[in-house]
Amino acid sequence: MGGPLLAACLGGQPLADAHIVDAVVDGVGSVTQWSGSAVRKIQTGRVQNYLLVALVTVSVLLGVFLLFAEIVIADSLIRRSPSEESFMTNLLLTAIVFVP
Q1: What is the rounded average pLDDT of the residues 72-91?
Q2: Is the same domain home to 50 and 99?
Q3: Terminus-to-terminus CA distance in the chain, angstroms?
Q4: By residue range, what is the domain housing residue 27?
Q5: 53 and 39, same domain (yes or no)
Q6: What is the DSSP letter of 100?
Q7: Same structural domain for residues 27 and 76?
Q8: Contacts for 76 with CB less than 8 Å, ≥ 6 apart
Q9: Are residues 27 and 70 in the same domain?
Q10: Measured over all CA atoms, what is the biggest interatomic distance in the chain, rounded to whole angstroms?
Q11: Helix, strand, or coil (residue 5)
Q12: Is the pLDDT of residue 30 over 90?
């Protein structure tokens, strides 16, 4: 039962556990510690700071959305009929009005 492949796989198990699994676990722990120390610096308890971060985040997301929407609309204008162009324009304008 088994063979050389099974023996090689079972023989390599301690090596894989020691190097690969332990490295992944240590990496997750290091990332958690680093992100915790980074977040600790920005937690001031002041609502104004949190609102500023929220405003910047929404602005960046809206900018990215508009950039990709413009690309999609420009691409779709080449392929779509006039009624579909109107639909895409209305969809974009609705998103701009309701996102903020």
Answers
A1: 63
A2: yes
A3: 65
A4: 1-43
A5: no
A6: -
A7: no
A8: 84, 85, 88
A9: no
A10: 69
A11: helix
A12: yes
* Rounded Cα–Cα distance for residues 72 and 95 (Å): 14
DSSP 34-81: HHHHHHHHH----HHHHHHHHHHHHHHHHHHHHHHHHHHHHHHHHHS-
Measured CA to CA, the distance from residue 88 to residue 75 in angstroms comes to 11
- Structure token digits, residue 33: 């510690």
pLDDT higher at 24 or 77: 24
Cβ partners under 8 Å of residue 96, min gap 6: 62, 66
- Report how many domains make up the chain: 2
Per-residue pLDDT, 42: 77
Model confidence over 3-23: pLDDT tens digits? 566 556 666 566 666 678 788
Question: How far apart (Å, rounded) are the C-alpha atoms in residues 56 and 62?
Answer: 10
Considering the domain architecture, whether residues 38 and 72 belong to the same structural domain is answered as no
